Amino acid sequence: MKTLKTTFRSQDFTHTQIARTGMVAIYLKEKDGHAASFEVVRIRTSKASTRKVTNEAGEEVEIKYEASETYPSDGDWGTHGFSYRSLEAARGRFEGLVAAEAEKEAK
Description:
Layout: E1 7-10, E2 13-21, E3 24-31, E4 34-42, E5 44-46, E6 49-54, E7 60-65, E8 68-70, E9 81-84, H1 87-106
């Protein structure tokens, strides 16, 4: 499975992972070197899949996607992703999610 990158760019922001336990992580979200927020995320997974598309020559081709970890989408925010202005607040949510995941696995 392809793991989520520890640093990536999205919508002019740089996201840098600063903590991860299991499938829960904290990312620092920056723009132009200035911290915008801290994002606490439940990392999701997607299954391997294939998709048929038509290329510029009009030929149907198959694109293969490997199984991978994914960052929550905009629609997942508030359920699988949370934004905080301070690292302290982000760590509080992070620790709560890690504890909840551990409790779920223990059942």
